[in-house]
Amino acid sequence: MKSTVNFLWNRFTMREALLLGFCATFIVLTKATLRMKLGISGHSMLFLMFFLVLARGIVPKTGAAVLTGLLAGAISIALGLAHKGPIIMLNFVLPALVLDCGGIFLPNFMTRYLSCIIISGLAAATKGVSGALIELFAGAPMDIVLVKGFFESLGGIIFGALGSLAVPAIIRKLQTNRLIPSSNGK
Amino acid sequence: MRRRMTGSDYACQYRAVDSPVHRLPAGWKMLISTALSVWILVVREPTPLFLATVSCLLYYFLARLTVRDFWRDTRYFLVQFCILISLFVYREGYPAGVWPGVRTSLQIVLFFIPGIVFLRTTQVSSMMKGLRKVVPYRILFLLFTSLRFVPFFAREMQEISMAQKLRGARLSPTEASRPVFWRDIFSCLVLPLLVRAMKTADEAALSAQARGMGSRSERTYYDVRELEAYLATHQKDGIATADPKNGEGICPARTSSGGETLTK
Fold first, then answer.
1. CB distance from A104 to chain B under 8 Å?
2. What is the pTM of this model?
3. When comparing pLDDT for A49 and B227, which is higher?
């Protein structure tokens, strides 16, 4: 039985909302259990971008990524995995916001490799934004903030793009098996 | 055992001790944290910065957190501290760049401390109680459901991983640096997990909807005392009621506005 009643924001059914909640759970779980000590800045973006793009792919509606990001941030805070305190929420919500904005202009970007990499790279570039904002408020000069932000975001962009690279194949596989509706509505 | 109860294993973990900060309501703690963070960001001169630092540290140690906890919480900022100071020294020269570098780095570390104290001293239940007043109940339902499913999916992940390892998938942490590990992780672990998540979402949604979740715009809940009184009256009257353990039968549900409904 498919649910047609809109549960959240007049947009998501309960099944979709729960699925997005589970994607948020996966983000937190992979962050906590598959913590890879690679010693490279930005490697956390690999699974974050993967699951955010995937969430946008399995629930192809505007706001899906933001809801996932919000829930992932809240779960991280609730489980005490936020090593920067409640401000960690921005690290989840900002990339999700960029993904949703990208989804407005390119609704099927999750199934195309190039657009997926570009939009995910842009979204992952927000990694340094929350830190840069705090540095700016703390009175650091703009050039120092930009240089530091650039190096912080660089790793994020590379890993974010790598993480999203796996999504188109998975979305197509799920569509082929009719687990999610295909992009042409069939 | 005592160390297990009161110590912490990772940064920002809740610390179960009794302190004046622990006893404060979550809303007040949030307010103090925000005020301290804003104060830290606006100060520039050494004396106010010193006062802000003392206040922050006082707030931290008033929560009966130890120096060891402090190290766990702030060690992440050490690299940032070094990068910022070297960037400032590179830009403004050796002695001139040191103070602005130290000041900015210190401000960034201190900015996070009140938030860390909030997480260290507030239980999830208190956080949620505070959130209930401002966040819509449907989002809270999603949050609680997602939290509830964390151990479920952690177990699923372990089981799938074990089964896939037996089939020859390379999923051990020692192979994390090899690209083949990443490919196997996506195809052998994530894909089955996703299919499982979809099935679980279907079942959970169906189950919640069958219980009337989301059918009304306001929050509804079962009033346990009223339910017991209702069952007692009906059992006395000899009316056959179904076994409440199975959740069957007619029982009263109450909306948050106080209206009573009968839910089957």
1. no
2. 0.72
3. A49
